[in-house]
Design a protein that fits this description.
With 159 residues, the protein is mainly α. The chain has four helices and no strands. It has helices at residues 50-60, 67-71, 73-124, 127-137. 0% of the residues are buried.
Amino acid sequence: MKRLFRRSQPAPPVPEARSTSHATFRTPDEAPEVEVPETEAPARKRPSSAWANQVRDLLSGEFLIREGALAQAPYLIFVSFLLVLYVSLGYYYEHLERERQSTERRLEELRAEFKTLQAEFESQLQQSQVERSMATLGLIQSVDAPYLIEVPTLEFREP
Protein backbone atom coordinates (compact mmCIF):
# COMPACT_ATOMS: atom_id res chain seq x y z
CA MET A 1 0.00 0.00 0.00
CA LYS A 2 1.28 3.45 -0.82
CA ARG A 3 2.29 5.64 2.11
CA LEU A 4 0.71 9.06 2.08
CA PHE A 5 2.51 11.01 4.76
CA ARG A 6 6.07 9.72 5.02
CA ARG A 7 8.56 11.32 2.71
CA SER A 8 11.29 9.14 1.31
CA GLN A 9 14.87 10.06 2.07
CA PRO A 10 16.74 11.44 -0.92
CA ALA A 11 19.60 9.25 -2.09
CA PRO A 12 23.00 10.52 -0.97
CA PRO A 13 24.87 12.24 -3.76
CA VAL A 14 27.60 10.21 -5.40
CA PRO A 15 30.86 12.07 -5.08
CA GLU A 16 32.56 13.00 -8.30
CA ALA A 17 35.85 11.46 -9.15
CA ARG A 18 38.64 13.70 -8.07
CA SER A 19 42.25 13.28 -8.40
CA THR A 20 44.53 13.41 -5.45
CA SER A 21 48.17 12.85 -5.27
CA HIS A 22 47.85 9.24 -4.22
CA ALA A 23 44.36 7.84 -5.20
CA THR A 24 40.97 8.44 -6.78
CA PHE A 25 37.78 7.39 -4.90
CA ARG A 26 34.28 7.12 -6.37
CA THR A 27 32.27 5.58 -3.51
CA PRO A 28 32.80 5.34 0.22
CA ASP A 29 33.31 1.57 -0.10
CA GLU A 30 36.46 2.09 -2.16
CA ALA A 31 38.03 4.39 0.42
CA PRO A 32 40.48 2.96 2.88
CA GLU A 33 39.39 2.66 6.48
CA VAL A 34 40.52 5.41 8.76
CA GLU A 35 40.71 4.83 12.45
CA VAL A 36 38.76 7.21 14.63
CA PRO A 37 40.44 8.20 17.87
CA GLU A 38 38.67 6.91 20.96
CA THR A 39 38.10 10.40 22.31
CA GLU A 40 35.60 11.06 19.52
CA ALA A 41 32.91 8.51 20.28
CA PRO A 42 29.90 8.65 17.96
CA ALA A 43 26.69 10.03 19.44
CA ARG A 44 24.46 7.27 20.76
CA LYS A 45 20.92 7.15 19.48
CA ARG A 46 18.12 6.31 21.85
CA PRO A 47 16.31 3.11 21.07
CA SER A 48 12.82 4.01 19.91
CA SER A 49 10.07 2.56 22.05
CA ALA A 50 6.75 1.20 20.88
CA TRP A 51 4.99 4.06 22.64
CA ALA A 52 7.02 6.65 20.75
CA ASN A 53 6.27 4.85 17.47
CA GLN A 54 2.55 4.90 18.22
CA VAL A 55 2.61 8.62 19.01
CA ARG A 56 4.57 9.31 15.82
CA ASP A 57 2.07 7.25 13.79
CA LEU A 58 -0.81 9.10 15.44
CA LEU A 59 0.62 12.55 14.76
CA SER A 60 1.62 11.75 11.20
CA GLY A 61 -1.70 10.07 10.39
CA GLU A 62 0.02 6.87 9.38
CA PHE A 63 -2.39 4.76 11.42
CA LEU A 64 -5.21 5.82 9.08
CA ILE A 65 -3.77 4.05 6.05
CA ARG A 66 -3.39 0.64 7.64
CA GLU A 67 -5.79 -2.15 6.72
CA GLY A 68 -7.19 -2.48 10.25
CA ALA A 69 -7.86 1.23 10.55
CA LEU A 70 -9.72 1.31 7.25
CA ALA A 71 -12.00 -1.46 8.51
CA GLN A 72 -12.71 0.67 11.60
CA ALA A 73 -13.67 3.77 9.58
CA PRO A 74 -17.43 3.54 10.35
CA TYR A 75 -16.65 3.31 14.06
CA LEU A 76 -14.27 6.29 13.87
CA ILE A 77 -16.93 8.32 12.04
CA PHE A 78 -19.48 7.37 14.72
CA VAL A 79 -17.12 8.38 17.53
CA SER A 80 -16.40 11.66 15.74
CA PHE A 81 -20.15 12.29 15.45
CA LEU A 82 -20.59 11.63 19.17
CA LEU A 83 -17.74 14.02 19.96
CA VAL A 84 -19.31 16.80 17.88
CA LEU A 85 -22.71 16.09 19.46
CA TYR A 86 -21.20 16.25 22.95
CA VAL A 87 -19.55 19.61 22.29
CA SER A 88 -22.68 21.09 20.69
CA LEU A 89 -24.85 19.94 23.62
CA GLY A 90 -22.39 21.59 25.99
CA TYR A 91 -22.75 24.90 24.14
CA TYR A 92 -26.55 24.49 23.98
CA TYR A 93 -26.91 23.91 27.73
CA GLU A 94 -24.52 26.77 28.48
CA HIS A 95 -26.76 29.03 26.36
CA LEU A 96 -29.85 27.79 28.23
CA GLU A 97 -28.21 28.47 31.59
CA ARG A 98 -27.30 32.03 30.57
CA GLU A 99 -30.86 32.59 29.37
CA ARG A 100 -32.26 31.22 32.65
CA GLN A 101 -30.06 33.56 34.68
CA SER A 102 -31.08 36.59 32.62
CA THR A 103 -34.76 35.60 33.03
CA GLU A 104 -34.29 35.34 36.78
CA ARG A 105 -32.73 38.82 36.88
CA ARG A 106 -35.63 40.21 34.82
CA LEU A 107 -38.12 38.49 37.15
CA GLU A 108 -36.48 40.09 40.21
CA GLU A 109 -36.74 43.50 38.53
CA LEU A 110 -40.42 42.95 37.76
CA ARG A 111 -41.12 41.80 41.33
CA ALA A 112 -39.50 44.94 42.70
CA GLU A 113 -41.52 47.10 40.28
CA PHE A 114 -44.72 45.26 41.26
CA LYS A 115 -44.11 45.82 44.96
CA THR A 116 -43.42 49.51 44.36
CA LEU A 117 -46.62 49.97 42.35
CA GLN A 118 -48.62 47.98 44.89
CA ALA A 119 -47.36 50.20 47.73
CA GLU A 120 -48.26 53.36 45.76
CA PHE A 121 -51.74 52.01 45.02
CA GLU A 122 -52.36 51.09 48.66
CA SER A 123 -51.25 54.53 49.80
CA GLN A 124 -53.76 56.09 47.37
CA LEU A 125 -56.56 53.99 48.87
CA GLN A 126 -56.15 55.50 52.34
CA GLN A 127 -59.10 57.60 53.51
CA SER A 128 -57.12 60.83 53.66
CA GLN A 129 -55.80 60.38 50.12
CA VAL A 130 -59.32 59.62 48.83
CA GLU A 131 -60.64 62.83 50.44
CA ARG A 132 -57.88 64.91 48.81
CA SER A 133 -58.55 63.35 45.42
CA MET A 134 -62.31 64.05 45.80
CA ALA A 135 -61.63 67.68 46.79
CA THR A 136 -59.73 68.29 43.55
CA LEU A 137 -62.83 67.10 41.65
CA GLY A 138 -65.13 69.31 43.71
CA LEU A 139 -66.76 66.49 45.67
CA ILE A 140 -67.20 66.41 49.41
CA GLN A 141 -67.56 63.49 51.74
CA SER A 142 -71.01 62.87 53.18
CA VAL A 143 -71.40 63.42 56.89
CA ASP A 144 -74.63 61.40 57.15
CA ALA A 145 -74.46 57.68 57.33
CA PRO A 146 -75.65 55.87 54.25
CA TYR A 147 -79.02 54.15 54.38
CA LEU A 148 -80.53 51.29 52.42
CA ILE A 149 -83.50 51.80 50.12
CA GLU A 150 -85.67 48.75 49.79
CA VAL A 151 -87.89 48.24 46.78
CA PRO A 152 -90.58 45.57 46.90
CA THR A 153 -90.11 42.97 44.24
CA LEU A 154 -92.97 42.09 41.98
CA GLU A 155 -93.86 38.49 41.68
CA PHE A 156 -94.17 37.23 38.18
CA ARG A 157 -97.24 35.13 37.38
CA GLU A 158 -97.47 32.85 34.43
CA PRO A 159 -100.77 33.00 32.41
